[in-house]
Every structure is written in structure tokens, then in C-alpha cells.
Amino acid sequence: MPADPYPRPVLDVLAAAGDRPVFEHENRTVSGARMLGLIRRCAAGLRTAGLGPGDGVAMRLGVTPEAFAAIIAGYVVGARVVGVRPGLPADRLHHVLSQDITAVVTDQPSGGGDLALGELLDAPDDGSLVLSGRPDDVARLIHTSGSTGRPKACAQTYAAMNAAWFARPPAWPPAIRELASRLQRYLVFGTLSSLVMYEYGILTLAAGGTMAAADPSSLADAIVKHRATASVITVPRLYKLVAAQRDTPSDLSTLRALVVSGSPIPAARLREAQEVLGPVVFHGYGQTETGSISLATPYDPPPSLGVPPDAIDIEIRNPSGETGELYVRTPTQAIGYWGAPEETAEVFVDGWVRTRDLGHFDADGRLHLVGRTRDVVIVNAELHYIGPIERTLATSPDVAEAYVTAAPDEEKGEAPHAFIVPAPGRTPDFGALRDLVQDRLGPACVPATITVIDEVPTAPSGKPDKRLLKPPS
């Protein structure tokens, strides 16, 4: 463990960058040396405001060099940094900001005692950085997406953040090393509070690359405009990009890596993406509670998630077979949910994290996921996992995407209901789809209804939000 607390590894990366560009925003380019200056001033401003170890500091910031500097400065002073995603509904925003927050830093005009980022940057730069983080203190709260209910705040310590490999090239696992070689120009957008956006941004800097702030409305246009080599992308957004490239191709010749995370990708859709975009798709698996668990490179056969790094411990717990629930132990995992002891006890068990995901390893040591323990439908008192139903429907050439939900049923207790996005130019045969499911999975898994949708609704995190899919009445 390094003698200095986090963010020492990040500061070392910036110092090594010197005059090299590390962040581009609109018409500005910020070097490593300039970023260190911004961090020093932000840290001085936070300390002038009386903030330090044990204080919760919420960051309501956009995607700018100054926002990045403020986040790093929060770690410099040893605060508990809380990222706030943009566009949160009022009730969720209130929930996030009510969790032991001492101060809110914002780059937007505000009142109510918030700290203006511009005022923090008015602090003098004395050329020094004193790191105040204590190993066992909580360094940040990272909120889950809320796809299974109210977002939970995962508490990660300074010691855990220091154990991360993103800023330490000698510790990179093979898949991360392959990804790092493609991160010359990495698009950042949406929010730096995103665990994935932030961590791969740090990896980019350590790999000698540049973070480029982009307008996320059109990923293809942003890639072209910024000559981007890499970005992160959700599964629904990947599908849209592939469809757009088939219809009206953009020049994406600079693109070398898209890190897809948040939800599984059917093998056929992943192969299609590789066919249209080239060997650029990296499929990541991790959780807010654990951080990164495994990463499949474009050379790993789908639908595997690659070989997990040696530093990650995974147990598949099922006494009756090879497939079971994944329990994971990572160097960077959270210590629990902030202010939620009962939920913590359910998920964080004897040093392990219950992922609530079902999976197995193949003969080559690659990890495969097959569903979630709680993504189920109970038909006539028999439990059936929804993942296999979705994957079976998605094998039809008429189906581009398939989503299944469970709903009460007067005769069976519950019944599965399917929502499908048709493949381009195809008209699905509902009878054939029901026969397909019955032949492979049995009559209990046959959807009671099948509804055609244009696209799946998404949560603020960008993940599919099946709670918004309502079966026809």
C-alpha cells in the first residue's frame, strides 16, 4: 500500500504528464501541470471553507476540467465525496443530499449556502498539496442506479481507492492493458460522478491519453468531432449506434474501444456490433458495490465476460451444480451502504459481496452470466429465471432486443410478459416466438403477452428500466 493516501496515484500521473494535454473542453486544452494547479486551488478553497476529513461534500458539477479538479481536491482534503448525477428526480435528489452532507459544490448559479466552484478556484495556489485522507475513512459514496428501488450509497474507503489499479500501469491486468493501449482520446460526457466514466478517465491519463468532454446527444458525431479513440456506452446506446451505422454510416475510423457496461449483451448482438464497428467492443462486468470484476476484450468469444484478474476472488455458490450465485471479493469493494445497516448485512457477507448474479466459468476460466437471482417469475409456485426467457427470444432473427417482466396472474400467481424490439425490416411472429420459448424452456416460461416496442425505456443511469414496461391490461 502506498505511504500517501489517495489521490496520490492520480497526482503522480498528472505530475508525470507535465505539459501534455490531459483534458479538452470546448476550445480549451488543460495540461497535467495546469490540472495540478486547479486541484491545488480547489483544495485550498475547500479548506478555507472549513472542509476536511469526515465531511460529506456533494459535487453537483458538469463535465469540465474544473469539475474534475474539484473532485480530486475533495479527496486531497480527505472529505467524503458524493457525486450527484444530473437530471435526478426531485425525490432522489433530496435523498442523495440528505445523507450527511456538509457542503454542496456547484458550477451553476445557486443559493442556499452552496459553494460556487468559481469561488473555490479564487483561492491562491501556494504550490503544495497536503493529503489528509485517512485509510479507514469513507472517501466517496457512489450511488447505485436505482434500477431495483431507491439508489443506495456504496461507501468506499481511502484504502480501497488506493488499491485500485487504474492509475498504476504495473498493476494492470491483461484486459485493462489491452484497453489502455487504445485510450489516446477518451470521450467523457454526462457526469464525472459515474463510476465507470471516472475510473476509465483515470486509466486514460495513466495510459498517456487525453479526456475530451463531449456532447452526448450523438455519440457518432462526437467521435468524429473529437477524433475520439474510445468511450463508454450503455447497451441500448450501443444498439442505436450500430443501427445508425448500418443506415447512415459516419466515419468512425479513429474509434478503437467502446467499453459497454450496465447490462448483458446477447451474443448475437455483440457479434453484430463487432461486424459493424470492428473489433472495438470491450464488455465490462462490475457493480457499484465491487468496482470492476471482469472485462472481455474484442478477442474474447461472446457471451463470456473474459477472465477475471488474479486480484479478484469469485466463488460460485451452488451445491447442486456449476451455475450459482456469484460472491465476489475485490481490493476496491465498498464496506457497505451508507446509513443502511440492514441492506448492508444482506449484501456484504463475511468480507464477500453477494452480487445477486448467476453465473459459471467455462473450461478456459472465462466468466459467464446467466441471470439475476431476483429477476424471476414465479409460475404456479415454481421459480423461473427471466434471463433465459429474454435470451431465448433474442435468438430469433426477428428480434433485436427482448425484455421480460413478471406480473400478477389470477390463475398462475405470476406470468411472464415480453417486450420486443423487432430486428430491422422484420415482423415478429408471436406464435413462433411462443413456440420457441416453450420448446427450449417449457410452457411455464411462455410469455402471456408479447408487446412490440420501438426501444426500451432507460433509467437516468442509461440502463434499461424494465419497471417502466407495463403489460397490456
Which structural traits does this protein have?
473 residues, alpha/beta, Rossmann fold, GMP Synthetase, Chain A, domain 3, 3 domains, seven-stranded mixed β-sheet, five-stranded antiparallel β-sheet, 14 helices, 27% strand, globular
Topology, element by element:
Blueprint: H1 8-17, E1 21-25, E2 28-31, H2 32-48, E3 56-60, H3 65-76, E4 80-83, H4 90-97, E5 103-106, E6 115-116, H5 117-120, E7 138-143, E8 153-157, H6 158-162, H7 174-180, E9 185-188, H8 195-206, E10 210-213, H9 219-226, E11 230-233, H10 235-247, E12 257-260, H11 267-277, E13 281-287, E14 291-296, E15 313-317, E16 324-329, E17 336-337, H12 341-347, E18 348-349, E19 352-361, E20 367-372, E21 376-379, E22 382-385, H13 386-394, E23 399-409, E24 413-422, H14 430-441, E25 449-452
Parallel strand pairs: 1-10, 3-4, 3-5, 4-7, 5-6, 9-10, 11-12, 12-13, 24-25
Antiparallel strand pairs: 1-2, 7-8, 8-17, 13-14, 15-16, 16-19, 18-19, 19-20, 21-22, 23-24
Helix pairs in contact: 1-2, 2-3, 10-11, 13-14
Strand arrangement across the biggest beta sheet: 6-5-3-4-7-8-17
CATH homologous superfamily (4th level) name of the largest domain: ANL, N-terminal domain
Architecture per CATH nomenclature, i.e. the level-2 architecture of the largest domain: 3-Layer(aba) Sandwich
Number of strands: 25
Which class best fits the helix and strand makeup?
Answer: alpha/beta
Which consecutive residue ranges, at least 5 long each, have pLDDT under 50?
none
Give the domain tally. 3
Task: Estimate the global geometry from the Cα principal axes.
Answer: globular
- The value of Rg in angstroms is 23 Å
Q: What is the rounded distance between the termini?
A: 58 Å
Provide a count of the helices: 14
Give the CATH class of the largest domain. Alpha Beta
Which sheet architecture does the biggest sheet show? 7 strands, mixed
- Topology-level CATH name of the largest domain: Rossmann fold
Mean pLDDT: 92
Beta content: 25-35%
